[in-house]
Design brief:
The protein is 68% helix and 4% strand. The chain has four helices and two strands; from the N terminus they run βααβαα. It has a two-stranded antiparallel ribbon with strand order 1-2. It is globular, with a radius of gyration of 12 Å. It holds the Pfam family DUF7853.
Length: 96
């Protein structure tokens, strides 16, 4: 579980499956942004930082939750839905 966000910035502490689902969700969001003509730079930064196990600020954690929710409600394959929901719960706990 991630550390409490009261200690922001905080590092995500996700299982392999949760990290994979977040990675996939970010890739889908980046592709969607590019297709919509939007700037994906923030999402690319998030992806890089997830891969590097970097720290995230509270507002960035909230953005990651939104990316995961969009993924779960949209293009997530069934194998990614449970880990993505678990990642959402872990991040929300960190934000509490």
């Amino acid at each position: 579980m991630s550390a409490s966000a009261h200690d922001c910035p905080t590092e995500l502490d996700l299982t392999h499956e949760e990290a994979w689902a977040l990675h996939a969700a970010l890739l889908v969001s980046i592709e969607d942004a590019v297709e919509a003509g939007e700037d994906p730079d923030e999402l690319v930064s998030f992806l890089t930082r997830v891969e590097e196990n970097a720290d995230f600020e509270c507002d960035e954690l909230a953005s990651l939750v939104e990316v995961l929710r969009s993924y779960v409600n949209g293009q997530a394959p069934s194998r990614d839905r449970r880990p993505a929901r678990n990642a959402i719960n872990n991040i929300q706990t960190a934000l509490a």
